[in-house]
Amino acid sequence: MPRWSRSTFARSVAVLAAALLHAERAFAQACCAGSGAVTPARLGVHEDALVGLQARYAGHLGSHDAEGEYVRTPSHAREINLEQNLFGAVRVVRRVQLSVLVPFVQTHRRAYGRSSTGGGIGDLNVAARWDPLLAGEAQRVPGVGLLAGVTFPTGRTAEDAERPMATDATGIGAVQANGGIAFEQTFGPWFVGVSGLFAWRTPRTVRGARMKLAPQYTLLASVGYAFPSGATAALVGLYTVEGLARVDDAAVPASDRRVVSGSIAGSVPLTDWLRVVASLFANPPFASLGLNQPVTAGGTVGVIWGFS
Amino acid sequence: MKIAPVVVLVGSLLGACAHAPTSPRDVTLVERDGASRALPEIAARAPLTVLVFVAADCPCLHAHLPRLRELAKTYGPRGVQFVGVDSEVFANPERARQTERDLDLPFPVVVDHGARLANALGAEYATFTAVLDRSVNVHYRGGIDSDKRRMHDGATPYLREVLDDLLAGKPTRRKEGKALGCVLRKW
Asked: What is the pLDDT of residues B35-70, one digit of tens each?
């Protein structure tokens, strides 16, 4: 269970920087604050479409166990996750955009002298965003974005993995429906955002047992600064909680999860329509800041082409 | 009591979306001397008027300033008056004068209280321009050119093309162009 849970969460963080750092107005406007978990590829205010590619590296430092205690990865073990996220977005009407993200996932694991590497396509995500009010449009009311998305189980589940140590597992095996609301505002060159996200996953059958994940709730907060050059920098904090999973309608003890993640991200425009985005992220390796969750650290780098 | 913030938010959103339709001819603007004048009165001063919606802190507008100054210098002697318009919520005559100074604009900035002119013309972003004749007929609305902020040589000069067409007595080759500036803080 931790394998696919981590994968979905990690992808959300990986695409966050791209979604966050579209600030087009260095002063008195930032068009975006983080909502990447549902809207992975977000259009800038004046963009009609975009395509992007983002690479992500994450190394495992340890994990938080079911009691919330941090446990370092043993010296004989190692895990590295790589992802390449191909995404695109298009504006369908003036304040509504649709996006799609196709992840390619690779995992390398080593334990007790044995190692395995595998990967493949992950779970495809489609999302929609409606911005009835843009950040900066009103003085006292923040920008509001309504978010919805669906993640389809196009990846390979852990139980279907064929490689040793399930390194070719790339998906969660369930349809995930997301919804959320984002509030964003600008204060001179600063921009802040708070998003609340909800995820509901369909049940699935694994070797005759009916498994269902609990709903997942995520709070995302961000603060950023936009430079006159158009470059942006931001700090992002993410907190996710998830209740007990159920197998055959019985709650699985100690299967609840909690994730805390922080990242620092930046974006540099190379031209009007081409920008480079990058981020560094980590789960704090401290007790009680996670539950049933690997502790990772890594970075992302990507390039986004926007069209107008 | 708990529902009050939601009501305020929804009301604000509806207020933002429900702009009462207004004709530009019915809009009154406040000029730098503090006097209120109807747009037709201002437009009657020249054969053509270019309204430029400004936000003093918008980098995109800053990037376009050299081109705006050049356009004003080139077309001013040919009967085109340029007028900056401040439609943001903080707008007042003093701020308008400050904007003129800060941006070193070669044309005046007027105050559009309540963003009535912006809403009448569909202006949502700084750098949005509108070209009017003496009778306040709108011949063009949209961006200055196709550049966002990089100012590359290959940009399509929307406004220049429209002015050339109108001064030549020809139909404009475009009626609208995309404005690429900052969101105007109207309320």
From this structure: 999 999 999 999 999 999 999 888 888 888 999 999
The CATH architecture one would assign to domain B22-167 is 3-Layer(aba) Sandwich (3.40)
- Looking at A77-86, A101-110, A263-272, B125-134, which range is the least confident one? A263-272
* Partner residues linked to A224 by β-bridges: A191, A234
Does residue B175 surpass a pLDDT of 50?
yes
**Cβ-based contacts of A30 with chain B (< 8 Å):** none
Residues 6 or more apart whose CB falls under 8 angstroms from that of A142 comprise A133, A135, A183, A184, A185
Half-sphere CA count of B32, side-chain side, radius 13 A = 11
All structural domains of chain B with their residue ranges? 22-167
Residue A46 CB partners (closer than 8 Å, separation 6+): A24, A308, B125, B148, B178, B180
B83-124 confidence digits (pLDDT tens): 999 999 989 999 999 999 999 999 999 999 999 999 999 999
- Residue A136: predicted pLDDT: 84
Three-state DSSP class for B74? helix
Q: Which residues of A touch B180 (CB under 8 A)?
A: 46, 308
Distances (CA, A) of A127 to A52, A124, A130: 15, 10, 10
The CATH class that applies to domain A2-307 reads mainly beta
Confidence of residue A5 (pLDDT cuts 50, 70, 90): very low
How far is B86 from B61, CA to CA, in rounded Å? Answer: 13
Compute the Cα dihedral for A56, A58, A63, A69 and give only its sign.
negative
- The CA angle A206-A211-A213, to the nearest 5 degrees, is 135
Q: Does A138 touch chain B (CB under 8 A)?
A: yes
Query: Is B118 near chain A, with CB under 8 Å?
Result: no
A80-97 residue pLDDT tens: 999 999 999 999 998 999
Which among A182, A185, A146, A245 has a CA at the least distance from the CA of A30? A185
Under an 8 A CB cutoff, do B150 and A272 touch? Answer: yes
Cβ within 8 Å, pair A46-B148: yes
- Cα distance between residue A93 and residue A225, in whole Å: 28
